[in-house]
Fold this sequence. Notes:
Blueprint: H1 4-11, H2 15-22, H3 30-43, H4 49-56, E1 61-66, H5 72-87, E2 91-96, H6 103-112, E3 118-121, H7 131-135, E4 139-143, E5 154-157, H8 159-172, E6 178-183, H9 188-203, E7 213-216, H10 222-233, E8 241-244, H11 247-259, E9 269-271, E10 288-290, H12 293-310, E11 318-321, E12 324-326
Parallel strand pairs: 1-2, 1-3, 3-4, 4-5, 5-11, 6-7, 6-8, 8-9
Antiparallel strand pairs: 10-12
Amino acid sequence: MVTIGQVAQRAGVSVATVSRTLNNSPAVKPATAQRVRQAIDALHYVPNQSARNLRRNESRVILALAPNFSNPYYSRILTGIGDRAWELEYSVLVCNTLGHANSEPRFLKMLESHRADGAILLGCHWDYGWLARFSQQSHIVQCCEYVPDLDCPSVSIDNYAATQEIIEYLQQLGHTRIAMLGADNQYISTRLRRQAYLDAMGRKNLEVRSEWYRLADADYSFASGQAAARALLAVEPRPTAIFCTSDILALSVISAAQELGLEVPGGLTVTGFDDVDYTTMVHPHLTTVAQPCHEMGLRSVDLLLAGLQKEKPASSERTFLPHCLMKRESSAPPQSTKTN
């Protein structure tokens, strides 16, 4: 096995110079660095990455905590995280928290033992005050969900603005009986979407009946969405449009409507949120809000490594990426207002 000493001898420099060259130190003159790299290539020298990491007190591992692996929304974000980490020669350790609030602290202890250099959290509850202890000592980025008062960087879309846009679109189509199907969780996105829905309806002086708001399970499961959808569709007068806070829930509403013989969008308009792949796999193609999931994953890694380079936890930086309303087949004017 070729040693760093042999590289130094061939290049005519000290071992310290070889080490500085490997670490891209600006203290090494370009001509010297070139000579060292030529010696490395000639001898086929492979640095001991584990030893280098130990000396630098780094692992080159990023911890990614996700509440659900089966939801394609999270998988697209995780793909972005993995792609950027690969480009920058980092490994990603993905952990499934199952949405349990006590899971994150257990995984984040890996930061304290230096088994990971930083963490990206995909499922922070809005009231995670305990996260401050970790964010003050370690490098953490919140992705898609965040704690509003926490001094810690985050990447998401503007959930309030996106919801306002889709509710106003439904109103422009002529819908006045607009219901909402959300999820029983503690995410900031859920709170913002609910508030935006209420505000958009209030500005038009439209009634918001308590029966027109239902919650699926915290993980947006299809089965719980179907049960909530059946309750919404049993209300009299029945809503003419249902705004859903995820595409999975929107598809569960379409399924429940079809069981009742309701056509979508003929008898009911349905909208989703996220724009995951299967929104256009079957008809009707789903009207939804597209989130740049892959880009959110990329930007999360960029923010995390920017903090690592500064060698101190990054301060609060709210990054809001652009969303896009995708108008498709599942939305139309209510039947009474359609023109012949």
